[in-house]
Amino acid sequence: MPSRTKTAMFGSAFFTCLCSFVVICVVLATQHWMSSEVRFLGTNSSTTVSLTYGLFSGTCAQSIDAGLQLSTKTFTVADNLSNTTAKSMITAIIVILVFSLLSSLLSSGFTCTNTVSNPYQTFLGPIGVYTWNSLCGIFTLTAMILFPVSIEENNLSVKLAQGCFAFLQTHVKSEHTYGYSYWIMLLVIFLNIVSITIIYFYDHARYSKKKEQERPIENAPKDVILF
After folding, report:
1. With b meaning 16 or more CB within 10 Å and e meaning fewer, what string describes 16-46?
2. Rounded to 5 degrees, what are φ and ψ at 221?
């Protein structure tokens, strides 16, 4: 059976891993990644489209000149994107976050296993926890980088606005605000760092204790060792 110290340390790591898993689920489920104000210039007036969207769906509202709102729509991101590159980028972000979710789930399973057993010398031990938490953090960071790239390089908000209202003409300017669904991915990275740190301190303390136990034998007189 694991010691109380090991149970407490791996139990704490299991909690942070589980929190990470829940947060990634929230990231995928909520549609508040981006809020954009996209302005278009028409023949006789200017039109502003307000968008709030995530990886799967969003809402768009059209207003003209003095702020008169004309209509509000709900849209599906994939259906509104005719550009293959932009659609592929969104798909890639979703796939990466699914990998992050699976890594977090595996990390939770590994830490839970270590709270009730001692698979220390195998991949199920700290090495496995380090691996899955690191992968989860890397996948999440990659998603955080790719999404702004898609916004800037593929003009994602402009394309989604044009998908909502087909008659829009010349794009003038856009203003973007990243929502909580995007920023809470930082919490995922932080939780993974906390999990790795907890296991590292336990691993380091165990290694130091093991060395201290070996030291008396190393320092013992040769005749005592021979005897």
Report:
1. bbbbbbebbeebbebbbbbbbbbbbeeeeee
2. -60, 150
> Measured between alpha carbons, how far is 188 from 182 in angstroms, rounded to an integer?
11
β-pair type (46-53, 170-178)? unpaired
Prediction pTM value: 0.84
Judge whether 199 and 13 are in contact, CB under 8 Å: yes
- pLDDT for the residue 187: 96
> Mean of the pLDDT values across residues 116-121?
72
Q: Quick one: tokens of 226? A: 């021979």
Q: In a 10 Å sphere around its CB, with 0-12 CB exposed, 13-18 middle and 19+ buried, how is residue 213 labelled?
A: exposed
What pLDDT sits at residue 71?
74
